[in-house]
Specification:
The chain is α/β, with parallel strands linked by helices. Helices cover about 30% and strands about 20% of the residues.
Length: about 220
């Protein structure tokens, strides 16, 4: 079954630390969303503030930025377990993936709704992870575009063993459908962040995606 991965998207350094510390008490990995205010208009904390205590859960860094090369030095210092850049950036990502791999950081490519996976086959054959983005860029609480599931078999045909993630609009009403769509990682933002009890919501989602049978 897929992993449920809480995501953090904020411009408040104190909230970032509070959420990361809390999520680390129950999640095995956490995705941190970073924007530059250009690629995605809503600004977040800078990646230099995306640090973690050694005892906290590993970090997946989702970089929504226009020029990835300008962020590499800081990312290598942070040393996330995985760093994801968008295929729609203005730069060729292949050299950037090579630099990250040489720094022992796993690589990922994210694709927006309008991007057909076949057009980025070279990236998909190079990276460790592909993130299907199906929500609102730079924001939490959007509605999931479930038609994006159709990209999964296309990605599998290009790179069968690639880890595939989903980001955007996940909640109790659609988590099970996503879990049974050959997706490996289900990133969850506001459904966990805005829950009265984030740990309970996380556990409820884990139980939900493990259910079999017809959705009712």
């Amino acid at each position: 079954m897929p992993e449920i991965v809480p995501t953090i998207l904020t411009n408040d350094k104190n909230l970032y630390r509070k959420q990361y510390a809390l999520y680390s008490t129950f999640a095995k990995r956490i995705q941190v969303d970073i924007t530059d205010g250009v690629f995605a208009q809503n600004p977040t904390i800078h990646e230099s503030n995306a640090w973690r205590e050694q005892t906290w859960a590993p970090m997946d860094l989702h970089m929504m930025v226009t020029t990835p090369s300008q962020h590499l030095e800081t990312i290598i210092k942070i040393k996330p377990a995985l760093c994801i850049f968008h295929a729609e950036t203005s730069e060729n990502l292949l050299p950037i993936f090579k630099i990250l791999k040489n720094a022992n950081i796993k690589t990922g490519v994210a694709i927006l709704k309008q991007t057909y996976p076949g057009k980025i086959a070279a990236y998909l054959k190079e990276v460790d992870h592909c993130l299907i983005f199906a929500g609102t860029l730079g924001a939490q609480g959007g509605q999931a575009d479930m038609l994006q599931i159709e990209k999964v078999p296309i990605i599998r045909a290009i790179s069968p063993n690639l880890e595939i993630g989903w980001d955007g609009g996940v909640n109790m009403s659609n988590a099970r459908a996503l879990a049974h769509s050959d997706i490996d990682v289900i990133n969850v933002g506001s459904a966990i962040a805005k829950a009265p009890d984030p740990k309970k919501m996380y556990n409820d989602l884990v139980l939900e995606i493990d259910k079999q049978g017809v959705l009712i």
